[in-house]
Design brief:
Radius of gyration: 33 Å
Number of helices: 7
Shape: elongated
CATH architecture of one domain: Up-down Bundle
Order of helices and strands: HHHHHHH
Structural class: mainly alpha
Number of strands: 0
CATH class of one domain: Mainly Alpha
Largest sheet: none
Distance between the termini: 112 Å
């Protein structure tokens, strides 16, 4: 009887709606907390010095991946810290795109999403720095090898003239000789004439 009662059904719907609203509010609060923690972690990451040698990078990578895996296993309360450590490992890895694909397979989905947010925040900060919004880290000074003095238009014209001259010389040289696809009789005739 109770199942078919309109008042009972109405009460169930109200309860479900309240539960859903509470879950949505908690998710929004968690998202705001995560964003705040990620911003703080990003500042900390920017101040952190990168390892210099390949051996140091390898050790750094292994330490942070191990720490991140341990933190991710502890549950949602540690996901931001785990994502931060995964991101630290990602920064020193030679092929970051491949590592992101590995993370996607082995990390819990919320941790992977946080790592992606960190990469997006980093690229946004770097893009803002390039646009003049935030001070960018000092770039390495240009070297003599980085400077290209040649004029591209003149080089292209000179190369085109050289290619045309080479093709013309090849045509003149090959006028008397048969093509590589011709029969053996033609080759014999050319070699007998020579």
């Amino acid at each position: 009887m109770r199942r078919h009662s309109p008042e009972f059904r109405k009460g169930l719907r109200k309860e479900q709606k309240k539960i859903k609203q509470a879950a949505d509010a908690a998710a929004k609060e968690q998202e705001v907390r995560d964003a705040r923690e990620l911003a703080l972690a990003l500042v900390e990451l920017e101040l952190e010095a990168m390892p210099a040698t390949p051996e140091q990078r390898e050790v750094y990578f292994q330490e942070h991946v191990a720490t991140a895996e341990a933190l991710a296993a502890q549950g949602p309360a540690q996901y931001v810290k785990a994502a931060t450590h995964f991101y630290r490992a990602l920064r020193v890895y030679p092929q970051p795109v491949e590592l992101l694909m590995i993370y996607q397979k082995v990390c819990p989905e919320p941790v992977f999403q946080l790592v992606l947010k960190l990469t997006q925040l980093t690229s946004a900060v770097n893009a803002g720095a390039a646009a003049g919004g935030v001070a960018a880290p000092a770039a390495a000074p240009a070297s003599v090898a980085d400077i290209d003095d040649s004029a591209p238009a003149a080089d292209a014209e000179a190369e085109a003239e050289e290619e045309a001259a080479e093709e013309e010389a090849e045509e003149v040289a090959s006028e008397g000789a048969p093509s590589a696809n011709s029969s053996g009789a033609e080759w014999e005739r050319v070699s007998n004439n020579a």
